[in-house]
Amino acid sequence: MSEPLLKIRDLSVHFRTSHGIAQVLRNVSLDLGRGRAVGVVGESGSGKSTLAASLLRLLPANLALLDGTIELDGRNLLDLPAAETMALRGTRFAMIFQDPMTALNPVFTIGNQLVELQRAKRPTASKAELRERAVQMLARVGIADPIRRLEQYPHEFSGGMRQRVMIAAALLTDADLLIADEPTTALDPTIEAQIVALMRTLHDEIGGTLLLISHSLGLISQLCDDVVVLYAGTVVETGPMAELFRNPLHPYTRALIACEIADDVTRGDKLASIPGEVPDVTRLPPGCIFANRCPDVVPACREAVPELRAFGPDRRAACSRI
Amino acid sequence: MRDAVIAVWRSPTGRIGLVLVVLVALFSLAGPFVIPFEPNKLDVLHRFAGPTALHWMGTDNLGRDLAVRMAVGGQIALGVALSTIGLSLVGGTLLGIAAAYAPAQIERAILVVFDVLSAFPPLIFALAIVALLGPGLDKVIFILAVTMVPHFGRIARAQTLSLKQAPFLDATRVLGASAARLVLVHVVPNIMGPLVVLASMDIPVVITLEAGLSFLGIGVPPPRASWGGLLHDGYTNLTQSPWPVTFAGLMLMLATLGFTLFGEALRDAIDPKLRASP
Amino acid sequence: MQPDLVQIQDATVAFGRVKAVDAASLAIQPGETVGLIGESGSGKSTLARLLVDLVRPSAGQVRFDGRDLATLDGPARRAYRRDAQMIFQDPVASLSPRMTIGRLLAEPLQIHGLDRAQAWPGVLELLRRVGLPETVLGKYPHQVSGGQARRVGIARALVLRPRLVVADEPTAGLDVSVQGDLVNLMTELQRDFGLTYLLVSHNLNVVRAMADRFAVMYLGQLIEVGPAQTIFTAPAHPYTQALIAATPRLDPDRTQSHTLLAGEIPNPNDLPPGCRFQTRCPLADAHCRAVEPPETLLGDGRTVRCHKPLV
To answer: Which numeric CATH code is attached to B2-30+57-276?
Structure first.
């Protein structure tokens, strides 16, 4: 098994807010295997967006703490000076956002943007060469009539098409790591299905490393090889996708899976949900973060934060009751 | 609203502005009661006196106490400013909201009215009205209010247009609210922010306009004391005494400075709050 | 069989040249829940707004309790508001920002001249039923959480004790771990208050848990209407089938094969002759491209608009 492309160890990110210090991420550790698609399951309040932002060092100004290591090829990204971090974005990392409209510049043509972004890695290539690559990539992501489309502006594309353009843009960077943050949340179901199939095909063909952040278990099961479950700022479970979903270890994972609406559900059936709310990360309770909502909680759970323990070569869970 | 005033107090320039405004207002309102002189009482023997313990600001060309005349002038300035802005705010807002909701032709008509009114420089308009109807305090208020209606009207219309799409208006309509209720209870409070800021920033403008009109003799007619009038009288008799011009100029400057600083601080306080709603 | 509560007959809503709703017919029985399903541009939101008089039909009729809404005069229209209410998609944005929750809940009473002293206990009871503490009454919409705002919206819609409630994407933006709670609440409220629901959504999973019948819309037309279970297990229209297949499902073993639709949703300004679904339908042939399919009644009580239904 080769070295992971990215190793995150004990990443902690805290923000200063008007109610106190928000400990948004606490000791998050995860590995991104080379060529693997890793899914981070995160609902509201999990800290998933902060995780993505930390990788790209796009954190807001009210940062109170940034601790831990993010190792790429043995170098800690958090130690890098600003210029080098900027150089990484668009060359080693590429990102797909939830809302493609805000990621694309509305006053430039798609062609202009797709050509410019390639220059970071190909500073000496000719414009014609870069345009040709852009055309081919647009065709590859399923955009018909790509040569004509290059001259169009973002507002002339529908939501699904814009997301395809974003994927094309990300692929054109030849980045080692693609980070996708809720890439299909804003799309209609039939369009989402198309984008998911596209991402799967491309991942199989190109073999890059994908970090997918989503609240949708369905999406993650369709695209990912490995899963990391993030709850209120900590990792509560990790493992290979099929195994984790078939045999979840952590009570949160189990409860989350139970909330999925099964095929045989009909009108009037009572649906499962997880009672309570995600705890306030400015006022952390002692002990396990899931204690106030856990069906298996015992008094000992509230005394100490459970460690992320191994349960086999690839499985880890942070629960004292397993 | 209360948070906005607190925020204004916290900003250094806002605090200065607020203090100046309060001082000018207090002086203008309390002055005539505290100062033991009548504003129109002539005392020609003691004219052009400098500031003394008796006459704090001295006397003018007819021996009238300057301090009490400044206070009365302040009352006029503030009174004109508040009535003018009050009238144009109400008129402009109603027209602006009407334009936003009206069918295209009526909207266009209202906008044309706005354009025509803005095209008149206030001074020329004032000259015309005074020529037709003679000078007077009420004429001044009317002239200034009319020229300022488009100012508020355009902002009110723009704010209403952007609010029209808001789901809470639809929701209230579904509950059965009448058009009147929608406008008065739901639209107006939500567009008032920028309008209030504009109004407070317009107070110094109106004060200056009134002073200008009075200076030219087409504003508040004498013997009523207005700052512009005092400036005029002081200016024509500058060689006899520098004090009237100095004090009138100073009063005008402090009032406009105070309101300007206050208005700007209010604008800064309200703006980010408008955007801050999560 | 009871008389229909709502009857939409050949209703068309046109904005300029575009028909957001095109000759749609739908009947809703008292006490039932109809799931109005469709994607962007389907016209489902516009159809829903017909029922709460936010939009008037350019052709056709909308009848409530047998009365055509277009024939109602001012006071009758206002009285109608007490019978049909709506829960909006964005819970915080649908609450007037400068009014406290208490005032917002009292407003329907004020508008309809109901005695506040008499009706207020009922409002407090509603607050309790939707799971909100009384402390929320003094807060402003931006001060409560999204989930609480959603419950305020539900409570407010029920203050007048309507008979019909239109819910526009009731679970949009909700985490999966809490959406069950909301669905259960809506089901209980329906039972306790004798409500009829029209659920507008593109989330088939949630609609399945609440609806008796589905009404599927595509580009302004109702293309399949019928019992929910029947449609879900054996869809008749190819679009319905694709929509069901596209609904995200936890599938660790990746057993699903996807009936993927090719192409994008076409521009409503530029509709081709014949069936509107032809540009993406795997079964479309020359006949489909020439003739618009009429509404056909199938053996199991469904209506479909398709020349080649799958059933």
So the answer is: 1.10.3720.10
